Amino acid sequence: MLSYHVQTSIETLPSSSDSVVRALTSVVREQMHTIAGLSLTVNALLSKLKEQDKELKRTTFHVARNREISLPEGYTLERKNISRVWHRDSSPPFKEFNMVEVMEKWQRPKRAHDHDHFLLVLDFMRHFFLNACEPPTKIQQYACRQSGKKGKFDHLKDLPEGLVDFLISFILDALGLHRDQLLRTPDEHKRNPNKWWLDLAENDDARERLFHVLSEKRVIWSGKTRIAIGRALEDLRRYHFDPDRAMLLPSKKKRVMVEGSTVTKKDEVIQKTETVEDEVEVVED
Fold it and tell me: Considering its fold, how many domains does the chain have in total?
């Protein structure tokens, strides 16, 4: 701004009859033009630098976020990981169910990749809740809150914590993260190695590193699964009941932002590398 005012002042100077003064004025005018041009260039570069800095911060955040929700190679949500029977008795309005059978009937999103872990968990939770209650519409009365406060959704019931814990434990098992061996220490495994420990890696150092990664992911995915449960319930509250088919159906095609890569489904569930908390409303305070 200062260079602009100086430049304006010079341009409005009256012409001098003295040739020396005219020459000096011309030199100063040219210098001010140069300075003004440099000022514009510097301002443009600073503006560009700020944009690049913001983009770098966003990229860094997403890389960190993806690393947080990633799993070691070979770990994904699938039937073969399940290590025990997951049966729950009926507790109206919730039906009796066997989670292994529920998973066997689940059709994975066709364009989802094995590393789209959050999408897979979210889609499976929707599949489970569609048939969890009798009548099916009862599930639309429930929310899984991420905090103890009801907030603006005080008309909704809390999904029973016993059921939430059950579902989280099942998902961890289906991800390969619910092994009893993870409750022991690496030193205990080294003293009394079992097949699970020996199959982790080629040597004890590599096994211990992977063990710590799996232990960390177990904690992370306990929280992520709870979020997925809340998202699935929110999605189903937008569904309508079809009396002819006696089931809940999506009311219309919709787009929902979730973590991961871009995946298209029948209801156009679109994934993006974005903060899930920012893109999809979660039932919390």
Answer: 2
Q: Both 216 and 97 in a single domain?
A: yes
Q: What is this structure's pTM? A: 0.67
Range of the domain at 23: 2-68
Question: Residues 119, 269: contact at Cβ < 8 Å?
Answer: yes
How would you write the pLDDT of the chain (285 residues) with one tens digit per residue? 555 565 566 566 666 667 766 677 777 777 777 777 787 788 888 877 877 766 665 544 443 444 457 899 889 999 999 999 999 999 999 999 999 999 999 999 888 888 899 999 999 999 999 999 999 999 999 999 887 666 667 889 999 999 999 999 999 999 999 999 999 999 999 999 999 999 999 999 999 999 999 999 999 999 999 999 999 999 999 999 999 999 999 986 554 444 444 344 444 443 433 333 333 334 443
Say how far apart CA 79 and CA 81 lie, in whole Å.
5
> Rounded CA gap, 150 and 26, in Å?
73
Of 73, 103, 61, 99, the residue nearest 217 (C-alpha): 73
| Chain centroid, CA 84 distance in Å | 28
- Decide if 269 is inside a domain: yes
Of the chain, the end-to-end C-alpha distance in Å amounts to: 47
Q: How far is CA 176 from CA 79, 99, 146, 167, 207, in A?
A: 10, 15, 24, 14, 15
* 17 and 78 inside one domain: no
Which residue, among 27, 219, 246, has the nearest Cα to 135 in the 3D structure? 246
Cα separation of 116 and 110, whole Å?
Answer: 12
